[in-house]
Amino acid sequence: MRKIEHIGIAVKDIDSSNDLFASLFGKEHYKLEEVESEGVKTSFFKCGPNKIELLQATNENSPIAKFIEKKGEGIHHIAFAVDNIEKEIKRLTKEGFTMIHKAPKKGADNKLIAFLHPKSTNGVLVELCQEIKG
Ligand code: ZN
């Protein structure tokens, strides 16, 4: 893994949260994107070299809706940048980690993504992401 790519924060209302985080960072989000397969609306902020992703559920079966129901709003996942996501999934599976996604899928912000199950990572939801090139 190369570095933290972004930190994901679960929110109830992405519009009011966009205003809140714009005030916090002193600048607007640079991207709004809906990922239908995950049932989420996302927005991305840059804060120096770091990125923050806000996620709002678009339906009640969305993982974000379930998270907020259980834990409330807050930090949802930490995403790490990888160069070769397939290789990394294989490596981590071999190391004994449980993958939620055994194969990469298309995520927000032009990325291939895969999540690890938090039960195998001390309760931290970890996302792998690889930039889609071209
Ligand atoms: Zn993410």
Per-chain topology:
Elements: E1 3-10, H1 14-25, E2 31-35, E3 40-47, E4 50-57, H2 63-71, E5 74-81, H3 85-94, E6 105-107, E7 111-115, E8 126-131
Parallel strand pairs: 1-4, 5-8
Antiparallel strand pairs: 1-5, 2-3, 3-4, 6-7, 7-8
The structure holds zinc ion.
Quick overview:
By secondary structure, the protein is α+β, with helices and mostly antiparallel strands. 23% of the residues lie in helices and 38% in strands.
Describe the model.
This protein is of the alpha+beta class and 134 residues long. It contains three helices and eight strands; from the N terminus they run E-H-E-E-E-H-E-H-E-E-E. It has helices spanning 14-25, 63-71, 85-94; strands spanning 3-10, 31-35, 40-47, 50-57, 74-81, 105-107, 111-115, 126-131. Strands 2-3-4-1-5-8-7-6 form an eight-stranded mixed beta sheet. A hairpin with a 4-residue loop joins strand 2 and strand 3. The longest helix is centred in the N-terminal third of the chain and has 12 residues, at 14-25. The chain is globular and about 45 Å long. The model has no long low-confidence stretch (mean pLDDT 95). Zinc ion binds next to strand 1 and strand 5. Zinc ion is lined by residues 6, 8, 53, 77, 79, 127.
Feature tags:
single chain, 134 residues, alpha+beta, eight-stranded mixed β-sheet, 3 helices, 8 strands, binds zinc ion
What percent of residues are in strands? 35-45%
Order of helices and strands: EHEEEHEHEEE
Oligomeric status of the shown chains?
A: single chain
Mean residue pLDDT? 95
Radius of gyration: 14 Å
Q: Please list the strands of the largest sheet in the order they lie side by side.
A: 2-3-4-1-5-8-7-6
Q: Portion of residues in helices?
A: 10-25%
Category from helices, strands and their pairing: alpha+beta
- Which molecules are bound besides the chains? zinc ion
Shape: globular
Number of helices, counting only DSSP H or I runs of 4 residues or more: 3
Q: Runs with pLDDT <50, length 5+?
A: none
Characterize the largest beta sheet: strand count, sense, and whether it forms a barrel. 8 strands, mixed
Number of strands: 8
For the termini, the CA-CA separation is 22 Å
